[in-house]
From TrEMBL:
Protein name: NADH dehydrogenase
InterPro entries xref list: ComplexI_NDUFA9_subunit, NAD(P)-bd_dom, NAD(P)-bd_dom_sf
PANTHER family associated with the record: MIOREX COMPLEX COMPONENT 2, NADH-UBIQUINONE OXIDOREDUCTASE 39 KDA SUBUNIT-RELATED
Domain of life, source organism: Bacteria
Family annotation (SUPFAM superfamilies): NAD(P)-binding Rossmann-fold domains (SSF51735)
Organism this protein belongs to: Oenococcus kitaharae DSM 17330
GO molecular function: protein-containing complex binding
Ranges where the NAD(P)-binding domain occurs: 7-159
Amino acid sequence: MKVLVFGGSGFVGQQLLKTFQAQGWQTISVSRHGRPKKGQAAWADEVTWIKSDVTKDQTWQDAAKNADWIIDAIGILFEKPKQGITYENAIVLPLQNIADFLLKQSKPARLIFISANKAPLVLKKYMQHKIAAERFLQQPDFAKLQSVIIYPGLVIDAAKPSTLIAEWGIHLLYRLPFLKKWISGYLPIKRTILADEITKVMRGGKSILTQRRP
């Protein structure tokens, strides 16, 4: 199986590639930065790293034509307007370009979009753009793609200590009976578990992450 991960050099993308490598799958990463400079583990040597900006060039398209699965793991938590990094061009536009390209193929790859289950008020704009991307993909014109949307909570891992601090705070609030129901939709997920759940979906299995949870 040939799998293409957009955003493969990122926090979630690297774990996906590592997990897919363990399955014996052929893995390709497309990202603006190409191969990451840190964490040069052995699995990374087996990945084909393509440096490309899906919103600005077409370097990625040849790889996308021959893929069995494509995962859109592109995303940012916070915008950086001075650097030209916005939710629109880091969440919505990449998915639109990928989906539009696949729709033109006679045998398009299956597409997975990693969205988010919920986000706090401080990330309201982030969540609005995730939902906008979902709605674009859910249009009748794109039914041919048989796409899957994944709804994870906060993705955590020791590789990013700040996520563990956030996890501690969320679980602390979750212990309070009057907040438990409200907090449940924000519960974190380990990065390795997210990758395993996506792998399960790609193998034809079911996952709780394919539905948005209250």
